[in-house]
């Protein structure tokens, strides 16, 4: 388990003190994939760099399995660092070395024999889907393949924790998905804790189970991904979530306005479905019960998160007000969140 307790990091610069991380309290359970999201300069990298001792806190403590990182030095610190692998946006590969030699590098530094290092590296190349490419040089690989090398190298010393700092930010969406699938796979296979920094909410949605949102060095919101997606509280979280859950929110608002103008008697409702609800024919059931209602679907989308699906549907209902009330009550009975955006 990782525990940040009242952690603050202040950099002294010529321009004055920079409060990169402020009063952070955060616990990350073993085997979890914990997302850390925030805009540039929020303090994400500084926070995770304190995990492998690349930065030391100005105050507070960072513990891994009850061991305080800050007080470790020499051999103890090196041992601790072996428990943590790290991958980066720009891969940080050695360009004059082959795939296999890149993966072997941390093993050689750790003092393993060449034969043992090679055997391990071959196994890791296989694990990350690079079998057959062991002798290639980084310049001969696609971005996704380069990141696979980065991942294999990060796993070389059998870490318990993998830190990923924007590891998919330089990749196209398809390759991003493939690399995220790989991270999810090794998280399950190796019971690896993954701390994942990103500014892309879809990365969080796809593989993280928990998320912390950072702004100005502080964690302003944290919790299970689905909860934070469902009910974002802080403005910054809402911005991230809205970008993701309703990418065309502005279009939708315009559409709603147009519909309101066109059908002033209509009732416009936003429905939010969680988990298995998103798979059920709830709306058609509602129409069967209230057969006199007319329904227009304005917009809909479903997003998969690690803890289930979240669906969002904008509908316009016209008909007898009593039937509309009945239909809305019916939806509420099925625990579908309903929000009436406009009522005649
Ligand atoms: N070594 C340093 N010396 C001085 N200031 C620093 C140092 N490292 C980071 N900072 C400052 O601390 C703040 C947080 O930086 P950090 O790199 O942690 O942000 P970030 O959330 O990772 O941003 P990005 O998304 O751009 O990577 C920034 O204002 C940054 O300029
Ligand atoms: Mg950063």
TrEMBL record:
Gene Ontology molecular function: any one: ATP binding
Protein species of origin: Lactiplantibacillus dongliensis
PROSITE patterns: ABC_TRANSPORTER_1 (PS00211), ABC_TRANSPORTER_2 (PS50893)
Pfam families from the UniProt entry: ABC_tran, NIL
Keywords assigned by UniProt, alphabetized: Amino-acid transport, ATP-binding, Cell membrane, Membrane, Nucleotide-binding, Translocase, Transport
Domain spans labelled ABC transporter: 2-241
Name listed for the protein in its UniProt record: Methionine ABC transporter ATP-binding protein
């Amino acid at each position: 388990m990782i525990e940040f307790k009242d952690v603050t990091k202040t950099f002294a610069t010529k321009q004055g003190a920079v409060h990169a991380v402020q009063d952070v309290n955060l616990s990350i359970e073993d085997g979890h994939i914990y997302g850390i999201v925030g805009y540039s300069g929020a303090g994400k990298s500084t926070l995770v760099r304190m995990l492998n001792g690349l930065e030391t806190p100005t105050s507070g403590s960072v513990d891994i399995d009850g061991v305080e990182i800050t007080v470790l030095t020499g051999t103890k610190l090196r041992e601790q660092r072996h428990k943590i692998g790290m991958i980066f946006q720009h891969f940080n590969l050695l360009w004059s070395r082959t795939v296999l030699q890149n993966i072997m590098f941390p093993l050689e530094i750790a003092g393993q024999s060449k034969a043992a290092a090679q055997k391990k590296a071959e196994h890791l190349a296989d694990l990350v889907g690079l079998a057959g490419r062991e002798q290639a040089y980084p310049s001969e690989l696609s971005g996704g393949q380069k990141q696979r090398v980065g991942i294999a190298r990060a796993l070389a010393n059998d870490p318990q924790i993998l830190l990923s700092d924007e590891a998919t930010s330089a990749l196209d969406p398809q390759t991003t998905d493939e690399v995220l699938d790989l991270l999810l796979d090794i998280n399950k296979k190796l019971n690896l804790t993954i701390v994942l920094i990103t500014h892309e909410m879809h990365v969080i949605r796809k593989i993280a189970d928990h998320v912390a949102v950072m702004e100005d060095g502080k964690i302003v919101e944290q919790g299970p991904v689905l909860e934070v997606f469902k009910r974002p509280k802080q403005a910054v979280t809402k911005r991230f979530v809205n970008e993701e859950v309703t990418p065309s929110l502005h279009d939708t608002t315009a559409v709603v306005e147009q519909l309101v103008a066109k059908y002033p008697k209509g009732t416009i409702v936003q429905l939010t479905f969680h988990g298995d609800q998103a798979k059920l024919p709830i709306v058609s059931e509602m129409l069967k019960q209230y057969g006199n209602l007319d329904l227009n679907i304005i917009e809909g989308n479903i997003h998969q998160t690690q803890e289930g699906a979240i669906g969002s549907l904008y509908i316009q209902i016209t008909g007898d007000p009593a039937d509309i009330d009945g239909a809305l009550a019916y939806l509420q009975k099925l625990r579908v969140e309903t929000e009436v955006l406009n009522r005649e």
